[in-house]
Amino acid sequence: MGKNPSDIWDIVVEQWNEEVWEIPQVKAAHPEKTEHPAQYPIELVERCVLALTNEDDWILDPYCGVGSSLIAGLKHDRKVIGCDKEARYIEIAKSRMKAFYNGNLPMRPIERELYKPQGKVSKVPDEWKVRGFEHIYGDVSGIDIR
Ligand SMILES: C[S@@+](CC[C@H](N)C(=O)[O-])C[C@H]1O[C@@H](n2cnc3c(N)ncnc32)[C@H](O)[C@@H]1O
């Protein structure tokens, strides 16, 4: 439409005003998941990179794991240094950075809304539903607990 794309993400501005960042953890179904058990979402570090640093600044992560902070920095033209005591995490960090430069690193986009499941995702077992706890479990009438 003849307009340059914006470099301001509405969702980030909205969440900044609400003072709450809604970012899913890196679990099994997350596109960024590697074997690291405590991996950060790139998007989390990305917001700090944008808020606290400028283009060409250096970012040092002395506990970089599989390199999420490094990728967040590279995404925004920062220079990055990382170290980790586990050589295998460094290898994964290096291959993620290569994939980033090749344009094929899976990343959750910063502007994607949090997935809100429709309906109930879990069910309270009937044996937990006892009178006196309706405020937690809802209507318990009709449940026969012996
Ligand atoms: C919470 S994880 C960081 C995960 C990282 N942000 C990511 O997204 O992959 C902490 C990391 O610190 C590393 N670590 C712990 N003690 C360390 C030390 N003394 N020197 C360097 N790395 C260390 C661990 O191996 C682990 O990968």
Question: Which characteristics define this entry?
Answer:
single chain; two-stranded parallel ribbon; 5 helices; 33% helix; binds S-adenosylmethionine
Kindly describe this structure.
By secondary structure, the protein is mostly helical. It has a single domain, classed as Rossmann fold (3-Layer(aba) Sandwich), CATH 3.40.50.150. Helix content is about 35%, strand content about 5%. It is built from five helices and two strands; from the N terminus they run ααβαβαα. The chain has helices spanning about 10-20, 40-50, 70-75, 85-100, 135; strands at about 60, 80. A two-stranded parallel ribbon has the order 1-2. The structure holds S-adenosylmethionine. S-adenosylmethionine binds near residues 38, 84 and 86.
What would you say about this model in short?
The protein is mainly alpha-helical and 146 residues long. It has helices at residues 10-18, 42-52, 68-75, 87-102, 134-137; strands spanning 58-61, 79-82. It has a single domain, classed as Vaccinia Virus protein VP39 (Rossmann fold).
